[in-house]
Amino acid sequence: MTLRMTREEDDGQRIFRFEDPSCDLSGVIVVDSLALGPATGGCRFWHYDDAAAMRADARRLARGMSYKNAMAGLPLGGGKSVIRRPAGAFDREALFRGFGRVLNEVAGDYLAAEDVGTTPQDMAVVRSQTPFVFGVPADDGRAGGDPSPWTALGVFLSIDHVFARRGLPLSGSRIAVQGLGNVGADLCRRLHAAGATLVVADVRPDAAERLRSEIPVEVVAPEAIHAADVDLFAPCALGGGLNPSTIPQMRARLIAGAANNQLATGADAGLLHERGILYAPDFVANAGGIINVAAEYLGHHPGAVEDAVHRIPTRLAQVLDRAEASGTSPAQVADAMARELIAKGAAAMAGNEGKRTL
Ligand code: NAI
């Protein structure tokens, strides 16, 4: 075995870098917070220009997971892993087996599941080496497997909520969906069934064509989707799509989608707020998948997942009510609420540790 791991701490985050040339594996695990439980978040398998970009992505995603898990009321802290996709040919099973061995080194402080670029089958390979992975297909009637349909359901319910809040009907509305992967395509099917007209884009032309063969959609260029003439924009691709160059061009008055880290920087929440665009904070709307992962970890049944995902609009309403009452952006309010919950968890943990030492 040729696994090499290093560990460092920065701004309260524990950052593990790992490399195993024997199976083309290299990546980063970030443990952002253990205040509410083991740090949990998906494993992204992606191309990165350099190690610094990979590390920065993992750190930002891990912080987002702490906030998401806290806001969803889950007994989980926040973490994330990122594996660099090898440039040439590679043995996928060997690579994910290698990742399973890496998880054993972090010894349960981080629990993985799938994210962009990984599948339930990959997680099953990881499980062959470690118990510290979820999102694995379940065959005993319990929660498990692909979290994407649950994410799509939560985003759909959030979209329904923001339309209702503005007194607009979802049926007959126009919605732009950016990214037609596991979540985006499923979301489109739900929106179509609810009577919305869809404008869509994906950088992979085959993804758009596949969807167009199933339901009526208007396909536009990926560079143009954010400026489509629609009521709501649903970012379901990668992060950073809401930024100073896209926000001024947006015609949608509502934004709710699945992508993690939709705002390029915190300041972009202010830009949306100034333009009167109602933004459903990403980590509130897209919690369905991690709710399913948590249910798998806790041994719950799919019925409990369904109930919990249907509570997402209630939490979103709390955020939007507070934002309206205080005149601040929903993103700022959601961040503050999540930080409060994490601080409470940290205080409770410190209290329990105190008791144990008495
Ligand atoms: P996916 O990898 O299945 O789909 C992403 C799609 O976006 C791909 O088809 C890709 O070609 C497309 N894409 C990438 N860049 C694009 C661009 N600039 N313009 C248009 N399309 C682009 O990923 P998945 O699972 O559907 O996730 C989508 C987003 O939702 C990601 O940001 C992910 O982190 C987030 N998310 C996913 C969850 C899940 O349960 N799968 C849970 C919570 C968040």
From the structure above, extract its key features.
358 residues, Rossmann fold, 2 domains, 7-stranded mixed β-sheet, 6-stranded parallel β-sheet, globular, binds 1,4-dihydronicotinamide adenine dinucleotide
What integer is the average pLDDT? Answer: 95
Tell me the number of helical segments per DSSP (H or I, 4 or more residues long): 12
Q: Rg from C-alpha positions?
A: 20 Å
User: Which architecture of the largest domain does the CATH hierarchy give at level 2?
Assistant: 3-Layer(aba) Sandwich
Helix-strand pattern, N to C? EEEEEHEHEHHEHEHEEEHEHHHHH
Number of structurally distinct domains:
2
CATH superfamily of the largest domain: NAD(P)-binding Rossmann-like Domain
Q: Indicate the percent of residues in helices.
A: 40-55%
Plain-language structure description:
- The protein is an alpha/beta fold and 358 residues long.
- It folds into 2 domains: 4-54 and 77-127, Rossmann fold, CATH 3.40.50.10860; 148-287 and 312-339, Rossmann fold (3-Layer(aba) Sandwich).
- The chain has helices spanning 51-71, 92-106, 120-127, 148-165, 182-193, 205-212, 267-274, 282-285, 288-298, 302-310, 312-326, 330-357, and strands at residues 4-10, 13-20, 25-33, 39-40, 43-46, 77-84, 110-111, 174-178, 197-201, 218-219, 232-235, 254-255, 278-279.
- Strands 1, 2, 3, 4, 5, 6 and 7 form a 7-stranded mixed sheet that branches. A 6-stranded parallel sheet has the order 10-9-8-11-12-13, sandwiched between helices.
- Helix 4 (148-165) crosses helix 9 and helix 9 runs antiparallel to helix 10.
- Bound molecules: 1,4-dihydronicotinamide adenine dinucleotide.
- 1,4-dihydronicotinamide adenine dinucleotide binds next to helix 4 and helix 5.
- Residues 115-116, 147-148, 151, 178-184, 201-204, 207, 222, 236-238, 258-260, 286, 289 line the site of 1,4-dihydronicotinamide adenine dinucleotide (NAI).
